[in-house]
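Q: I'm writing up a methods section and want to include an example of the input and output format. Could you take the sequence below and give the corresponding predicted structure tokens, formatted cleanly so I can copy it straight into the document?
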Amino acid sequence: MGCLNLSSTATEDPLVEGYHFNWIFVKRFWKVLRIIFPQWKSCAVILFVLLLCLVLLEQYVIFQVGMIPSKYFGILGEKNLEKFKTHTIVAVLIILAMAFIRASKKYVCAVFGVCARGLLTHYLHSGYFKEIVFYRLNVLSTVIDNADQRITQDVEKMCRTFGEIIADLLISPFTIAYYTYYTWSSTGYIGPLCVFGFFVVSTTLNKFLMSPVVSLVYRQEQLEGDFRFKHMQIRSNSESAAFYRCGQVELAKTNEKLDHLLKVQQQLNIAQYVLEFSVNIADYLGSILSYIILAIPIFAGSHDDLTPSQLSALISKNAFVTIYLISCFTRLIDMALKMSDIAGTTHRIVQLDESMRELVKSDLFGPQSDLLNSGVISSNFPSVAYSVDNLSYSTPVAASQLLVSNLSMQLKRGVNILVSGDSGCGKSSLLRVLDGLWFRTKGVILRNVLHGFQGVMYLPQKPYLTDGCLRDQIMFPYRNPHIHAVDDDQLVELLKDVGLGDLYQRTGGLDCSLHWNWYDVLSPGEMQRLSFVRLFYHQPRFAVLDEATSQVTFEMEQLLYSICAKMDITLLSVGHRLSLRQYHHVELKMKGNGDWKLEDISNT
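A: Here is the clean output for your methods example:
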């Protein structure tokens, strides 16, 4: 398999393509809807139906509320006290019903948004954590920025906004049809014609003004992620940064990202200002238009036979119907602002999903399955973990920079291999290529073992520590202790063997719930020793160590390698220390510029 440029596996850069409220958005939004509404009996569908019922009921009550003033005009014109008392009681009950319906509607909208977020996030997680997709996106991809922000903030914002407008958006055509009929009855064809013409003009203008807002929302979310990531970078590496006294340098870099973000936000504010100006014009011109429509039959003499009180009641009733019809249209126009937010975040979410699907379809991960996910342990234990033939590879960013050329080797059972060489010559890169994290330029790699118990396990230079208790750290990446059962006394002994007996006391036991950051609590040497406890718990037949003892003493290094030998774990180690040679049989020397040398050091 040749080296693949990840930028070709996803949509073109957003700044080049330009994401707008267009057909691409419609297709992507439809895809999101199929995720949120997976089947008819799903929670989201039930909540949506309930929300739809509440909106229909709300429209009925709104009509009753709209009729209250006209009835008051008639009753007060008649000076009928009994009707006034009765109508007042009914009006209060209608208002209470309206308050209950609107509060319930807002609550169901919020619950629907949470439900939709759960469904969409679980869907994205299934692709993000499939094999090593998360690694390819975060490390190698040149298209997807801030995947974490897309899954967290963008999804939350889109689902919340979608929940706020979905029911009103769907019910609007029926409401418009209903009030169009009433307007036609009271004003003739001229009323609906004026309202519809007004809506067409307003919608066309707002569609034109909405497109730049969508693009700027997309860009703003991108820069928000960059700005947040910069602060996260300082937070995660605050001690290292403090030793460099680099506050002023990082201040300049962080402010630079902030300034870029603020510049785009100002551009977005201007675009939203113009759109808001257009929307408000439509809102307030609509109220004037309603009285113009009502004035036509009145000045034409169509209601000359009515008394002043009757005419007042009629005007109040017809004014409500006409104004509400215009309001239905202006609400659709008002939704333009929220739809621009939905469009921007939808593009980012679906673009992430498209990139993840492209990675999976490209068959980038080879034929092997993940043993840890399946929980199945093969009874067939091959004597060769990796077989490499004429392997060449380079860095993903600079494909022309060849690190190793035509490498052939095997990691055989019982033969420990040490990979040495100057920094940047491709030692750690070899491990990434062997495990499929990076792509090879040419050659063949046969992977005969799976990850996990009785297979192969990697110990990176910087150990990965998950959240959870001490047992979670030791068992990682297992979650079920019954897959590889080891009693608690043995786990404590493993901790003591590597000098971490006090860690058992500090954590309050193996299963004590902890909410600390393990990277802040443990020293680099303790983290490396804990990763070896993890290795000894899993007892793989092969282990790949990338500078895994660089932070421990020579005495501890000797102890760790002796335990590996006692457990009959075959090692492929990357390291600079000369002391490592005594624990290996073969040395692979990386000389740079693609050159290498494989020699026997078992007798040296």
